[in-house]
Amino acid sequence: MLQAHGTTSALCSGRQARPALPARRPRAGSVQVHATVAADKVDGRAVRRSLNKTGRYVRKPNKDPKSNELMEEHGVGYSSTGLVAQMREQDNLWQQGDVTVKLAKAYGYCWGVERAVRMAYEARNAFPEKRVHITNEIIHNPEVNQRLRELDINIFEDSAKGKDYASIKEGDVVIFPAFGATVQEMELFRDKNVEMVDTTCPWVAKVWNSVDIYGRKQFTSIIHGKYSHEETVATASFADKYIIIRDLEESNYVCEYILKGGDKEEFLTKFKKAVSKGFDPEKDLQRVGLANQTTMLKGETQEMGKMFERTMLSKYGPAALGEHFMLMDTICDATQERQDALYEITDDPSIDMMIVIGGFNSSNTSHLQEIAEHKGITSFWVDSAARIDVAGNKLLHKTGWGELKETTNWLCDGPLTIGITSGASTPDRAIEEVLDKVFRIKDPSFAGVAPKECAVVGVPEEEEEE
Ligand code: SF4
């Protein structure tokens, strides 16, 4: 549980590009698929295909207008009439009295997150009489999850003992969240005869396809990610042999081991929670393919790929590289785009302070706050407008190093230019509510921004998955 530490007084000191849908072809130089599966491997691809045959499995939005309306009303989709929608139409800028607001070029909901929330609303609408469950938080945003609970959707929380799905009965509806579900969960729900709504982002499914291909080629999957993150847990369940590597330091350690060998016991202790059962670094690092958790830094994943490529090149020579290293392009740009946009906005000398909005458990939002702090800009990270006290001109915010702080007089008198951004699980409404409070602090007579019909955010068409 997070605690507030200390109180300080502040020293008054186009809409993002949506990612194109996943391309299906491996990157030039990577190897083609051969459909052979080790006998003892759970065939994740076959399990996913078997879901399709049940007649109880949905994996795309149905664009039902009633759900769209409810999402608008609840403020859990893209803004189409509010302040953010209006800012989109004027170069991400807003002037309210003596406050100038500059919204980062890439911010807020990524395509996959909005799609998942939409599918959850559609599931509720399609099955009004049925009990509906989600195997995890749909996304890392407390307000969106709360809205779903209010729609009588049961969210299974993780616990030390894991999850107990015994309460889910035949005929119920089970939603898989944006970051997916494990192969074992898919099998369980297929066999429980429930209705399945799979909101897994196609970019995540693309990573699953990669590790499946690596397994069929008897390659070990190197997964760049955090071993406890739900998405990585799901990805690992599709892999045959795998090792999960968190950062470049760990990557370097593994590459050194491949080249020079080392202490096997130390290796297995270091990665004890991050390797497949029976993993043997002597045997299982001879043929490796790289995959990633989609919220990791794109540049870091690319660097990791280069590290392993160089390592295999050095160990086996150029002629045999294809037998020892595979790389498929599975990087989603959404996280990187938000960070690049933050670097850009914090380079703007007119910005007096930043506000970063996103769930306190959202790792991509924490990176945004860290960047602002590293650039030396006063930056306040809040998860919702509820953290801001208008009458007291104070707020409870989180720092990049995880401390909760209360700051008073955070908005000073006189002209102020604020930069604003939000994490990939944050709906536009959260930005609008925070700015509403900012404007009320600066001008007690502020009566809100009038809604206005704006262009709807375009999303890419769904593609058929192989
Ligand atoms: S960040 Fe994750 S959920 Fe969003 S588009 Fe990328 S893969 Fe999909």
Automatic annotation (TrEMBL):
<protein>
    <recommendedName>
        <fullName>4-hydroxy-3-methylbut-2-enyl diphosphate reductase</fullName>
        <ecNumber>1.17.7.4</ecNumber>
    </recommendedName>
</protein>
<comment type="pathway">
    <text>Isoprenoid biosynthesis; isopentenyl diphosphate biosynthesis via DXP pathway; isopentenyl diphosphate from 1-deoxy-D-xylulose 5-phosphate: step 6/6.</text>
</comment>
<keyword id="KW-0411">Iron-sulfur</keyword>
<dbReference type="GO" id="GO:0051539">
    <property type="term" value="F:4 iron, 4 sulfur cluster binding"/>
</dbReference>
<feature type="region of interest" description="Disordered">
    <location>
        <begin position="1"/>
        <end position="29"/>
    </location>
</feature>
<dbReference type="GO" id="GO:0019288">
    <property type="term" value="P:isopentenyl diphosphate biosynthetic process, methylerythritol 4-phosphate pathway"/>
</dbReference>
<comment type="similarity">
    <text>Belongs to the IspH family.</text>
</comment>
<dbReference type="InterPro" id="IPR003451">
    <property type="entry name" value="LytB/IspH"/>
</dbReference>
<keyword id="KW-0479">Metal-binding</keyword>
<comment type="pathway">
    <text>Isoprenoid biosynthesis; dimethylallyl diphosphate biosynthesis; dimethylallyl diphosphate from (2E)-4-hydroxy-3-methylbutenyl diphosphate: step 1/1.</text>
</comment>
<dbReference type="GO" id="GO:0051745">
    <property type="term" value="F:4-hydroxy-3-methylbut-2-enyl diphosphate reductase activity"/>
</dbReference>
<dbReference type="Pfam" id="PF02401">
    <property type="entry name" value="LYTB"/>
</dbReference>
<dbReference type="GO" id="GO:0046872">
    <property type="term" value="F:metal ion binding"/>
</dbReference>
<keyword id="KW-0560">Oxidoreductase</keyword>
<dbReference type="GO" id="GO:0050992">
    <property type="term" value="P:dimethylallyl diphosphate biosynthetic process"/>
</dbReference>
<feature type="compositionally biased region" description="Polar residues">
    <location>
        <begin position="1"/>
        <end position="11"/>
    </location>
</feature>
<keyword id="KW-0408">Iron</keyword>
<keyword id="KW-0004">4Fe-4S</keyword>
